[in-house]
Amino acid sequence: MIRRASLAVLLAIGTLTVVGSPAQARACQIDYHCETYYYSDSTRTTLVGVKYENCVGDVTWVGTRGSYPEFYETPC
After folding, report:
1. CA distances from 58 to 43, 49, 55 (A)
2. Does residue 17 carry a pLDDT above 90?
3. 49: Cβ contacts below 8 Å, ≥ 6 apart
């Protein structure tokens, strides 16, 4: 009985962890400059972070990763 209860608790915690994780933006293609803007809410009014990826693959973060990403890419 204790094992079943422990398993149920672990499954519940695992589900909350997966659901609560921030959304992932797509990967930047080779020979593209990409910018991913992260917002704190679905209305995309509060910017909380930006991820810059340049044409040679260098990545720069400003702020934090939020749950609502917006992705832009331009060819180099």
Report:
1. 30, 17, 8
2. no
3. 37, 38, 61, 62, 63, 64, 65, 66
